[in-house]
From TrEMBL:
Keywords: Disulfide bond, Extracellular matrix, Glycoprotein, GTPase activation, Leucine-rich repeat, Nucleus, Repeat, Secreted, Signal. Belongs to the small leucine-rich proteoglycan (SLRP) family. SLRP class IV subfamily. It is found in: Nucleus; Secreted, Extracellular space, Extracellular matrix. PANTHER family: RAN GTPASE-ACTIVATING PROTEIN 1. CDD domains: LRR_RI. It comes from the Eukaryota. Residues 1129-1167 are annotated as: Disordered. This is Chondroadherin-like protein. GO terms for biological process: nucleocytoplasmic transport; signal transduction. Its main location: nucleus. The keyword Membrane does not apply. It comes from Scophthalmus maximus (Turbot). It holds the Pfam family LRR_6.
Amino acid sequence: MATDIVAQLADSLAKTGVEDGELSYKGQGRKLDDAQSVEEIVKEIQDFEGLQALRLEGNTVGVEAAKAIAKALETKSEFKRCYWSDMFTGRLRSEIPPSLNSLGDALMLAGARLTVLDLSDNAFGPDGVKGIENLLKSTACYTLQELRLNNCGMGIGGGKILAASLIQCHKKSSADGAPLSLKVFVAGRNRLENDGATALAQAFQLMGSLEEVHMPQNGINHPGVTALATAVQHNPQLRILNLNDNTFTERGAIAMAQGLKHLRSIQVINFGDCLVRPEGAIAIAESVSEGIPILKELNLSFCEITEEAALAVAHAVKDKLSTPVSAPRPPDVSSFLSFPSPDKLLKLGARRALLIEQQVDVTDAAKTAEAFLKIASVYKDENNDVKDAVLDSIDALLKKAFSTPSFQGYSFVSSLLVLLGLLKMDIFSAAVLMLISAQSLPAEAGKCPRLCSCDGAKLTVACVGKNLTVVPPTIDEITVKLDLRNNNLQVLARGAFVPTPYLTHLNLQRCNIIKVKEGAFRSLNRLVSLNLAHNKIDILYQESFDGLSSLKELHLDHNRVEEIQPGAFTQLGFLNMLALTHNQLVYIPNMAFQGLQNIKWLRLSHNSLNNLAPEAFAGLFTLSRLSLDHNELQFFPTQTMTRLSEVTRLDMSHNPMTYLGEESVSMAKLTHLYLDHMSLQDLSDQALSRAPLLKHLDLGHNQLRYLEPLSGPKELDSLNLTGNPVYCNCYLRPLKEWASVGGVKLLGACAAPPHLSDEPLQAVAPLDLRCRSRLEVLTDEFEGDNESTGSSAPTAEPKQNVKCPVNCDCDIDAQHATCEGRGHTKVPRGFPAKTQLLDLRSNHFHYLPASSFPGAGQVVSLHLELCKIREIESGAFRGMRNLLYLYLSDNDLTSLDPGAFAGTPELTYLHLEGNHLTQFPGPALAVLPNLFVLHLEQNAISKLEPAGLLSSVAPNLRELYLTNNSIAAISKGALDSAFLGTLHLDANELKEVPTHALSGVPNLEVLNLSHNSIRSVGPNAFKPASQSLKRLYMDQMGMEKLSRNALAGLGAGLRSLTVRGNQLEELPELNPLTGLEVVGLQDNPLLCDCALLPLRRWMENVSLQVIATCGQPPELRGQMVRDVPVFKSCPESSSPPHQKVVVDPRPPKYRPQITGSPVKPEHRKSRATCTSHRTSSLMMAAAMDVDTPSGTNSGASKKRFEVKKWNAVALWAWDIVVDNCAICRNHIMDLYMDTSCIIVKAFICFDMRHHHFFSDPYHNF
């Protein structure tokens, strides 16, 4: 009942300065550009005696206006509180520092002593912090208690400036005997990161007075969190700590847990979405149990904690809640009414309304007015608890007042309003009439405009379809809903709705509106829904929506919008939904939607968008749903979409995209992705690798024949392939098996082969997915011919209405034509001129002569798979100037004429897999300057040569697939290419990593070497590509050794590493690979002893799912490396000087040697169990008869003698190895060059019968 009154009262109180010493212009949406525009404000500031607070939130202040306001503040020595959040909306960043400097200089000149400085939501960046730097260091801030800089975009630089200023202020104020005692610090959403947080932590530690710290969404990782953890220990009065949505990890969480133990006053801890992980959560739980006596709230949501950790936290919190607390003081109503505050009102408890009602004598109009005023003065719209408490209390007070005899008539109401100190009685006239109506007292009804219908009870006015050209000026002031649909307003003039300031819903559909002038809505600061759909608006100007500070829904559908000017939406900070569908947008510029701080759904469907600027959606931190369907986007806008960290639903359907490459979708929280009704012909298995939470993927009605298992999404529930020409053969089996294992529901049906046609993908059995031999195909064709010969004539097909070759189907609307599997021996002619997709697969062409496709100049995609093509004549595709995709898979090509692809300058994707090519078709590719992806899998290519093979014929090639050929050699420089990013060499005959061939591929990101016969990978094997490589696959190679330095140079950039199904007993150090997201170590016979301890520790410290099993020793075979207890007995770092080196003394089993293959001994190699780096230096020192550093071979002659003795034995053994056994030579190199341990005495025993070594520092030679 009292909601509207309180809202109006709060506004009036703020403006008229009823609250002690405060002058407010909050939320008025004023555009204050120059001195003239602030004359009224300046005069009111000058006339306000004892001014202590100034509210400028929700306006936009220019440089000259700020100077004028500053001039007025120069005499206000009692000034204390600056509420200046969101007051630079739409201003250039360069305007903000001088404005802040002017205001700060004025406060310093006035001798003000600030307690509150609020500059939140101003997005002024690091430069803006410079604008308050001098102020923060001055005497004006010695008394500062609250500093609020939320959502200002300060960045690291701004954070450092702020920290330095606070430190300087504290030092100077301490020297004056009154050190800075800041209590509340707010700086969320500023991207302070580690360096900014660390700098501020130093300031916090120095001050030691903080009670509240709010720093959510700042990109702070464990180094910054650790610094803050140290700082909070020095702030014992801290009550609230909010670091939501940063990244603690275990290290940061454990450090913070230690800090929390010192906070005896902490009541609220918000570490939600901070990735504390199980160990961190348990550490925090222990701190809560041990040292936090009055905790009220602990938030660890979305922190990836286990059930065990969650239970530990639950028990800790339960123990806190069960701790007896002292009895609360009885509520003191008199204290609240004497000195009102929100805290005091809340402390009155649930009975506050009754207590206040009993305390106030409503028969005395003056006392009632005073109580009413004091309750309303603590109203806070942003705090629901305070808001509800105020409304309940006022309702109770008014109810009691209404029941008294003195409330009969208007006399009491008039005296009440006068006592409230309001200058304008008409502000409350409508609200009071409502209250009187509620008590069934007579009231004069508001006037209703002619041609309109009004509902006084619901406060609605409808003037629908009356051909109005202006907004009726006589609409009742208290109207809350106004419907003006189907009129002819054309232009919305400035101040058009000033007479109706209480509107919450305004419908202006189909009003032929062409332009919205500046200030048209400026008086509607209560409006929550505005509908401007079906008009003729073409430009959204910067000031179009000024004044709509409460708007939540804005409908601009079905207009002619083709331009969004910068700052158009900056006044709409509370907007939840913006609809711009069915407009004429072609391009979205950077920062187009700046200011939409609470947007949830942005609808841009049915436009003509073909380009999105990289920062088009920057600043939309709350956006969860984006609709971009029915546009003209030809490529997935990866760079733009990556900025949308909170989006869960994305609709990109009905866009002409043909391909989705690796990591195209990089959206961490995306759950629903719609890519249906596009033109997708290919989709990389890594396209969604950066969308781990994806649950529903719609690929319906595209042109996908095959799809590989998708990497990345771990929670995918459904994959829709309905309407795709899915070919259900052996190539689909991996997808089917992947879906079965992951519980993914496949929607759609098989399109071929005929016996599986229309079979649901979910129902088809993996065993039915097989590839038939040529004999089976010929048999089916022969049987089909016999059946057709003996059967009756088929029913005549309906006469075609469009131009189309005989025995083909043409769809004019879809621009598709198909003659698939119709038995053609020559390429049909006469397709519609606008055909873009031409499908001729599964015919019997054998030979393609020159100019085989006349009139096909618009074709974008041409399918010629399974057509038994043996030869392509020069110029066969001449005239196909728009051809992007060419599929020649599974034919009988053995070579290609140099001019085979002449006349196709735009060809981008070429499929030649499944042919019989014996050489890389370089000359034929030379005429394709735009070739981007080349598929040559399943051919008979044996070598890649000469140097310059790629750079000379395909300089722009990005992806090269050579899987399942016979490649045994790659010439140096053959793969040189400045753009090559993906290289698949798996299932070939390589014997070693082609390191020399990678030196000229500076941008290589994906390298697949799986299923080659590479037994050993030596040091620096991938060094040439180390700066760019992201994914490395080495599965099923029979690899026995991966050198300790094999991965040298590969650091944080590597994201995937797989060595599955090899014969590895040990692995190199993986700690440098900090960016790994996928690691495959399965099916390797790892030797689980202390040498594997670094791997075990690495597995414990990463959040990846790593599967590794022991192969040796026998008693541990098959057990998970994570689970075996053998590592508990291993030394923490290096071994003691005299630790024995453990070696298996058993000889290997005899195995006949097979010619051409290396002999693989079945015993494990000698290895040391310690981790120093001295052995090789010791060996070299002994060989040269010199002293080693650090005393290893210096001083005593006895030690020198032992080294000489060791040297003689080593040289003797080496001579035998060189002369007798290459395998043993490798063993001894492993022993002395790869092993790292401190051995004062080292000996080698060599057994010629078993080719076996062991080292023993205690062996008596």
